[in-house]
Recover the amino acids of this structure.
């Protein structure tokens, strides 16, 4: 199989995003492009030139509706609700027809290819310390789930002794594969404990990279269309405040040595 170039990967991701956008519009589902994808829309009117993934977010009620109803002739949704081997507390819409992926950190035992990430947005505590405590609990559970992504693959020399031990005994701890799914479902229950809209703040707890940031729910109340490549996609109306909470001056280009794809360990291929 021939490996996709960065530009081909972006175009494959763009096709998935366009399909998801159409489905959401037809079914009254709110979504917003976010993270690097949102920065790309504002700073480049499309992809950040070196970006290799697409991220969108949905309020938990919209996320649940989307996951349970999304269908497409070209793509499929894979998440913890329809795949017990999916080691992520969010969902992905995947192109399995035309693409294939290989990695030392597989996230599902299913056949998969180019995807876009869909993260739920949940209600969070008004008290920042209470939210931080819950977030840190989720982060510890997420680290265990991450170990299972590598249980049948080689150990890197840079791994700590603890990490190597966890990787080695993961099949035993797996209890015939039931423990990883239990961890993810437990995380989802903890993440969605506070109903969306029941407090003035929301957060993204399914991908635990940014810390326990409390986003004002007001930033998520309305949605606007932003140009992205040859399309327009939705973004939360409070995108400027939202991105400044995450990144500071997001319109400033990073140093040249940081302008690299994030997922260098993942290789995507065209199917023959």
């Amino acid at each position: 199989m021939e490996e996709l170039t960065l530009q081909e990967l972006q175009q494959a991701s763009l096709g998935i995003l366009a399909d998801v956008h159409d489905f959401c519009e037809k079914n009254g589902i709110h979504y917003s492009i976010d993270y690097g994808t949102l920065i790309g829309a504002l700073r480049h009117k499309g992809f950040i030139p070196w970006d290799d993934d697409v991220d969108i977010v949905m309020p938990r009620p919209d996320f649940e509706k989307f996951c349970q109803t999304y269908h497409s002739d070209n793509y499929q949704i894979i998440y913890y609700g329809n795949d017990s081997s999916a080691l992520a507390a969010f969902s992905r819409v995947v192109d399995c027809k035309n693409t294939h992926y290989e990695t030392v950190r597989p996230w599902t035992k299913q056949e998969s290819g180019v995807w876009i990430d869909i993260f739920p947005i949940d209600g969070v505590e008004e008290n920042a310390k209470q939210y931080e405590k819950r977030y840190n609990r989720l982060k510890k559970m997420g680290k265990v789930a991450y170990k299972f992504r590598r249980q049948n693959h080689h150990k890197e020399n840079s791994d700590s002794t603890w990490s190597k031990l966890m990787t080695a005994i993961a099949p035993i701890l797996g209890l015939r594969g039931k423990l990883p799914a239990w961890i993810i479902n437990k995380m989802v229950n903890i993440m969605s404990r506070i109903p969306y809209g029941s407090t003035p703040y929301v957060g993204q707890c399914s991908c635990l990279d940014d810390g326990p940031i409390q986003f004002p729910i007001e930033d998520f109340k309305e949605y606007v269309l932003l140009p992205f490549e040859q399309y327009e996609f939705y973004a939360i109306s409070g995108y400027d405040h939202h991105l400044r909470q995450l990144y500071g001056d997001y319109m400033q280009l990073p140093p040249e040595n940081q302008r690299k794809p994030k997922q260098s360990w993942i290789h995507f291929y065209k199917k023959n």
